[in-house]
Amino acid sequence: MKEYNLEEHSIVKITDEVEISSTDLQVYYGNDHAIFDASLEFPKNQITSLIGASGSGKSTYLRCLNRMNEKIARVDGKIMYQGTDINASGVNVYEVRKQIGMVFQRPNPFAKSIRENIQFALKSNGIHDKHVLEERLESSLKEAALWDEVKDELDKSALELSGGQQQRLCIARSVAMRPQILLLDEPASALDPISTSKIEDTLDELKSHYTIIIVTHNMSQATRISNYTAFFHLGHIVEYDKTKNIFMNPSMPATSDYISGAFG
Ligand SMILES: Nc1ncnc2c1ncn2[C@@H]1O[C@H](COP(=O)(O)OP(=O)(O)OP(=O)(O)O)[C@@H](O)[C@H]1O
């Protein structure tokens, strides 16, 4: 692979309202420095894609945004959300994760009914009113575009759903908590093209209510769904801009080489 000057980068300041941002974020796994000086601002109610070759640090960075890394890595730097640094002492990690939900690469529903998958976390958070629980069940499944397919079998095991339906159930489970931000780590990479397209349509609908940050290896997907894109290389954010600029007119040689398939 060609060597690039990683001291140089091109990161736009966004003009839209910022929902969450990182400043000079560093992540270390033991002695390995995995993320270098990552400063980014994410626009509210829009979709941002994180792209880059395998091992470039996309998932590590994403996981920092709701403190999923804190047991496995050392994280320095600030992540500001609603005026608070989420890593500051005294900040409750469970509250952070209620506001900033996460959907993983492999669908991971609980081995419970569809209804329980949605209502379990709500009940654990003190919501026991049956009317509220049923309303959240229906609204979340509708938001994740799954309601019409499952409304007559809500007590069926989630494990009997297809992979694509399971992933939409995981999205519904996240939105049931009424977060502000949804983080998704390659949510469609294990799915067929039709299920992928349904997930993309769902995300497009969801962005009017949620700020969405998605890791994807699929550059056509980033082009189709995201407003902004950040390109990662060897733990550095090399370029961040509106998606159309990243793909039509990249500023940095590494971005240009990556999107034209020279490596990755
Ligand atoms: N739990 C971990 N322990 C130690 N090192 C890790 C851990 N997770 C990731 N790394 C290292 O951190 C670097 C970034 O990995 P990361 O998974 O964030 O990259 P990525 O761009 O998301 O890759 P992929 O696209 O393959 O998922 C890599 O060198 C990886 O080996």
UniProtKB/TrEMBL annotation:
Source organism (scientific name): Companilactobacillus versmoldensis DSM 14857 = KCTC 3814
Annotated ranges, domain ABC transporter: 20-259
PROSITE patterns: ABC_TRANSPORTER_1, ABC_TRANSPORTER_2
BP terms from Gene Ontology: phosphate ion transmembrane transport
Highest taxon above the source species: Bacteria
Protein name as it appears in the record: Phosphate ABC transporter ATPase
Keyword set, alphabetical order: ATP-binding, Cell membrane, Membrane, Nucleotide-binding, Phosphate transport, Translocase, Transport
Source organism phylogeny: Bacteria, Bacillati, Bacillota, Bacilli, Lactobacillales
PANTHER family according to UniProt: ABC TRANSPORTER I FAMILY MEMBER 17, PHOSPHATE IMPORT ATP-BINDING PROTEIN PSTB 2
Keyword Translocase attributed: yes
Alphabetized GO MF terms: ATP binding; ATP hydrolysis activity; phosphate transmembrane transporter activity
